[in-house]
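Supplementary material to the annual report.
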Amino acid sequence: MTMSEGELAVAELHFVRDRAIAPQPPPASMTGALGWVRANLLSTPFNIALTVIVVALLAWVIPELAKFLVFDAVWSGADRDACREAVQHREIGACWPFVWERLPYFVYGSYPIPERWRVDAFFVMLALGIVWLLWLEAPRRDIGVVYCFVVLPIAAFILLHGFEAIGLPVVDTVLWGGMLVTIVVASVGIVVSLPLGILLALGRRSHMPTVRLFSTLFIEFVRGVPLITVLFMASVMLPLFVPERLEPDKLLRALIGIALFASAYMAEVVRAGLQAIPKGQFEGAMAVGLGYWPMMRLIVLPQALKITIPNIVNTYIGLFKDTTLVFIVGIFDFLRAVEVARIDPKWATPVTSTTGYAVAAMFYLAFCYGMSRYARAMEARLAAGEKR
Amino acid sequence: MSIDVTGRPAPATDAFYNDPKVRSFAYQIALGVLVAVLVYGAVTNAIEHLERAHIASGFGFWDQAAGFDISQTLIFYSSQVSTYGRAFWVGLLNTLLVAGIGIVLATVLGFVVGISRLSKNWLLAKTAGGYVEIIRNIPLLLQLLFWYNAVLKALPEMRDSIVIARGAYLNNRGLFLPQPVFLHGFGVVIAAAAVAVAAAVVFTLAARRRQKHTGKRLPVAAVVLALLIGLPLVGFVLKGLPLTFNYPEVGRFNIAGGVEVLPEFAALLFGLSIYTAAFIAEVVRAGILAVSRGQIEAAYSLGLRPRPTLRLIVVPQAMRVIIPPLTSQYLNLTKNSTLAVAIGYPDLVQVFTGTVLNQTGQAVEVVAITMLVYLTISLVTSLLMNIYNRRVALVER
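Predicted assembly:
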């Protein structure tokens, strides 16, 4: 078909654009940093007021913290004179030489100095176990589980407590202290509470009335009372309940208290996971002829534990913080070591306490925050399968 | 008959020990016997130990003279005449006092922080997030020690007390405030307050009924506020201001008169409230996020403004999610108040499980009573919780 002359002229003379003009840039106040600030910080009068208040708060807290921890801090010195305003004639922040000098005490407590390599070896073995378990691409993680829950506890006991037959002198637990005790208490709690918690959770969901009754009683009882009373019970009443020759030492009593306490909480976490498994999974397992334990081991627990991993890690965070309570029944954990060191007359200054607490806070914050990041990453990873 | 394909003899599935009923019976008997043996062993050992140590058993110590002082007593207590039983009540009241005030403070702070974390204001949300992450990940005991030893004990001595206002002093021995003294005639003010509360309730109910019938709203908040403040104030003025203050007098080493807030109490209160608030903030945030976006959009499309949407749609649904974990946070706070023992606040554990146990040596009785108290608090709370839960739970069809 051909176009007539007239039609062509009209087509060339159209009043409508056949090409879009380039878009204008958005107003400067809506984009970039300025726009972001307007939208996020200054959108309404109320929002502006909030921003002003928060900025004022941060402008007060952050410089104070920085001054104390870094700019006004003392970095070297031999004794308390280095950290005293009256001697130094300037404002004094954190007293770090106190920490440098007491660091071995914070880590090992009174563990004999020639034997401290054993503690170091334990830390290395523990770190290996943790990396093996938590790093998802690590080779042979099944062996890692055996290593962490069987080999490591035995090896750690021989290493730390000592075993005369192989030439390791026995170190009484009274001498253990500092981070060593904190980490030992936390690890024992972690290693014991998971299996015991699983058993209690299964017991609470059992069809056998006696088993259910005892499990429920134990869980509700322990969860209903404060940890301190459990620790008091373990340290004051336990020696009464066992024959004299079996009387456990002080650290072991605290370990038993912590482990039982953590197990009750773990049981409830695991029970929540078990409840999330559809009934069809149980029935399917029974239909293919699996007994109770194979069904739990092969079908139910792998699914239930997988979805509870974040909560299990959260329980571990709580457990790690709760280890500080052994301090009250006279165990020399990290916090107790800081408590003792800070009142040492050699370093008696107004800033010593705060410095000690700052170090302790950083230690616990690093561990707990690390664990909570791991839990969150795990949660995101597990949720990936649910997202479409 | 099953068909034997493998040629092996069929397993003896019908043996009596494979019967699930028999098995479960056997397991339960075994467990029962095990528990019984453990309990029997523990009891006989305990009796033997206590006899050898010449420690009396039973609750006879309850009525014996205590003979030790307690630094904070809400009810009358004196080391000379009061009994161990009295000391128990003093400790319990101190626990309830710090837990009660702590719960109020933690709830207020927790809701503020939790809502701030969801704020559109980036700076506020991040600051609230930082607060939660830092406070949650530092052990409570460390925080208590910090407040007590590094903050409150580092305040100036008695001689150089900080004067906050007339009659209010702060030093390393505590906070000293004027004590109100109610003169004759203050009962009228209390009566007026009671009348005001009753009137406010009646007015609120009437206003609600009126709104239901006519759709017209009365200024409820303003009227209620006027009633609650105005009536007692009128009574107070008419009776000739029947209230004076007993101001604390600062001496060289001591402050006489007034009300004293112990540094131990303040440290425990700060520590517990700040710590628990971080957990409550997370509970609140989760609760608000649990209300689906569609609910809010539906409310907007019905023409509700943001504030009524929040009050009528979001909060009631969020509360359903928030209340159960919130209660368990309250219980945690109460249980955590036992850490008082580390800084010397005379709570139940410090007074009873600490001093009384050390003086009498009756570990079994004392620890059992302490546990019973906390168990009772837990069980009563969860009972109330279950009743509440049944009332607000979604009725699903």
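The longest helix of chain B spans residues 84-117.
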